[in-house]
Amino acid sequence: MYIPVNEIHKHFKTETPNMSNITHKQDQWSPYHDNSGTVLAIGIPGAVIVAGDTRLSNGYNILTRDATKLSQLTDKCILATAGQYADFIALRKFLQQRLQLYEFQNEVQASTQTVAHLLSRELYSRRFFPYYTFNLLAGLDENNHGVVYGYDAIGSYDQMTYGVQGSGQELVVAVLDNQLKGYNKINKTIPQTQQEILDIILDCFSCAAERDIHTGDNVEILIITPTGTQRIIKPLRKD
Amino acid sequence: MIDFDPSSFGLAHTYQKEDKDEINTLALPSAPQVIYKTLNGPTQINGGNKLNNFKHGTTTLGFVFKEGILLAVDSRASMGSFLSSEQVRKVIEINEYLLGTMAGGAADCQYWLAYLANHCRTYELKNGSKLSVAAASKFLQGILIGYRNSGLSMGCMIAGTDTTGQHLYYIDNDGMRLKGDIFSVGSGSTYAYGVLDNHYRYEMSLNEAVELGIRAIYHATHRDTASGGVVRVYHIHQNGWTKVHDGIDVVDLHYQFAQQKGLVGDGDEAKQRLF
């Protein structure tokens, strides 16, 4: 069909772009990155076992296969964090310095309960620009019983016998509910020895590595007992 | 030279947008998108999406009766649709004569009720007498009004005993403070109110009141997805407070009440719990 030049405007809609008809697509910068991974902690009488995978990711990229998510704050307690690694480092630095000051002033290391409360207050101090960290604080209490405190990003905390945080949380916690509490188990046998619990932990991380892309590479396990700390590293799927 | 309109002196100067103007705005960082634990509500991301905003998802209740005040709470906490804990302690022991219940944001409640506890203790040391329940609740209200519109989420009840008797107050993150005889807070509150309003009498005995509190929480947990776990019951009397029940599993209550009604199912479920 022939369109005369001076009638083109009737057939083709042209609009000059202006403030009202431009839709801006801005890539908003976000201060938060999820470096993912999974951590768990289990407390038993006489010991506490903390485990975390060592993969650091950012979206679909693996940044390193070798990053620890665990940090020993005092002889008796360990901080395990999933979430943003930068915030983990900042939080760890704050806690280490503050606990060092505590030790200088009081001539004794802070108890696990004290550290738990300190962590909660530090997280809440950033209520309106939170630390993107999902923490577990695991340690021995006054009676050398293993205790675990689970936190959300802004500092709400509760004592529990075991806890999981991170990208593999939903996968792993259901297994632990079944194995450690006996929920929905026909033959209710609860593990008693440290070795049985270590086996369960390794199984949990293997499961998480199978089904969660952000979990894998290695699992680092720290066992705190009144006599000291023991470290075990086991390999996981690297894909 | 910028021309100030005298009528806008001192106020923020705003541009009049014209079609020809091209204003380059720096992309500001977006508000933090952090997921934190709520007491039985969907994901709270900076105040929450209004559509999904389960305000104070949980079930807590308290009522005044002739023997004092009874508080009963459930124990479920969720992060989005994931149950982060079934064993949360939603009654906070502020001191030996004051209790606070939590609903809404777990961290907000924990922090500010601990702050209130600190304030009560300081007052006691400075003034030689205990802070009244009215004053304690008013103090908390003052704090929450200061943080209005900032995204805090709290729906708590302050219950306690002082020289004038036992009192129950409801405090809200909007700055509301109400004194009353019956309160229930949370997504399961409507179910709890139904049971409470049906059987409440001021002249109840302690046992009847405990029964009522447990039953109301059970019915709320039965019908509300965001409530569950265990029931915890506290009693406030003139000498302080007592923990009546530390944690009764609502699943046990279900089979107990079913049996009372004469329902046995096919027999196997009630007799042989797999969990």
Automatic annotation (TrEMBL), chain A:
PROSITE patterns: PROTEASOME_BETA_2. The keyword Iron-sulfur does not apply. Keywords: Cytoplasm, Proteasome. GO terms for cellular component: cytoplasm; nucleus; proteasome core complex. InterPro entries: Proteasome_sua/b (IPR001353), Proteasome_suB-type (IPR023333). Signal peptide: none annotated. It comes from the Eukaryota. The keyword Zinc does not apply. It is found in: Nucleus. One of its GO terms (biological process) is proteolysis involved in protein catabolic process. PANTHER family: METALLOPROTEASE TLDD (PTHR32194), PROTEASOME SUBUNIT BETA TYPE-1 (PTHR32194:SF2). This is Proteasome subunit beta. It comes from Paramecium primaurelia. The lineage of its organism: Eukaryota, Sar, Alveolata, Ciliophora, Intramacronucleata.
TrEMBL record, chain B:
One of its GO terms (cellular component) is cytoplasm. Keywords: Cytoplasm, Nucleus, Proteasome, Zymogen. It holds the Pfam family Proteasome. CDD domains: proteasome_beta_type_5. InterPro entries: Proteasome_bsu_CS (IPR016050), Proteasome_sua/b (IPR001353), Proteasome_suB-type (IPR023333). It is found in: Cytoplasm; Nucleus. One of its GO terms (biological process) is proteolysis involved in protein catabolic process. Its main location: cytoplasm. Belongs to the peptidase T1B family. Component of the proteasome complex. PANTHER family: METALLOPROTEASE TLDD (PTHR32194), PROTEASOME SUBUNIT BETA (PTHR32194:SF3). Component of the proteasome, a multicatalytic proteinase complex which is characterized by its ability to cleave peptides with Arg, Phe, Tyr, Leu, and Glu adjacent to the leaving group at neutral or slightly basic pH. The proteasome has an ATP-dependent proteolytic activity. This is Proteasome subunit beta. It comes from Paramecium primaurelia. The lineage of its organism: Eukaryota, Sar, Alveolata, Ciliophora, Intramacronucleata.
